Amino acid sequence: MAVSSACYVYAIMDPTTPVTPAEFAAYYDLRYRVLRAPWNQPLGSERADDDEAPDTTHAMLTAPDKTVVGVARLHPSGPSQGQVRYMAVDPAWQGHGVGRKLLEYLETVARQRGLTECILHARDTAVPFYSRMGYEVVAPSHTLFGSIPHFLMCKPL
C-alpha cells in the first residue's frame, strides 16, 4: 500500500542544516529548480554572495528517502532584524507543511539570536502563505525577472 507524502511531514521531518558538500549540492539544486530554472535563469543564480557568511543559517527538510523537499535561509539584516530568503519547496510537497516548518525553525533561530523582527520579500503568489504565518505586507518591493512582483513583509518575533 502506498503512503502519501503528507503522512511523513509531521511524524518524521525536522529541519536540518546542510553540512556536507553533497547536502549543500542537493540544497542548492532545489533552490535552482524552484526559484530560477522556471524563468530560464542561469545555473549559479540561485547562490548569493553572503550564503557562506558565518551568521547565515541554512535550513532544509528532507523526505524519508533523504530527498530534499524544502530549503530556506536566514541572515541578519539589521541590529535586531533577520531576513528570510530563498524559501523553496518542491512542488510535489507544497501544501504539506514544509514551508511552515522551515519558517518556524528559522524564526526560532532568529529569536535565539536576540532578533525581534523578521522580514522577507515575498513573491505575490506567496503573500497568502506568509500572511497566514503572521507576516504583514509593508510595501510593494521589486519585480524579479521582469514578471514576478514581490512585497516586503514583516513579522515581530
Task: Give a description of the structure.
By secondary structure, this protein is an alpha+beta fold. The chain has a single domain (6-117), classed as 3-Layer(aba) Sandwich (Aminopeptidase), CATH 3.40.630. Helices cover 27% and strands 32% of the residues. It has 4 helices and 6 strands, in the order ααβββαβαββ. It has a 6-stranded mixed beta sheet with strand order 1-2-3-4-6-5. A hairpin with a 3-residue loop joins strand 5 and strand 6. It is globular and about 35 Å long. It starts with 5 loop residues before the first helix and ends with a strand. Residues 1-12 have low confidence and may be disordered.
Structural topology:
Elements: H1 6-11, H2 21-35, E1 57-62, E2 68-78, E3 81-89, H3 98-112, E4 117-123, H4 127-132, E5 136-144, E6 148-156
Parallel strand pairs: 3-4
Antiparallel strand pairs: 1-2, 2-3, 4-6, 5-6
Whole-number total of structural domains: 1
Task: Give the CATH superfamily.
Answer: Gcn5-related N-acetyltransferase (GNAT)
- Count the E strands: 6
CATH architecture: 3-Layer(aba) Sandwich
H-E order: HHEEEHEHEE
Helix fraction, binned, reads 25-40%
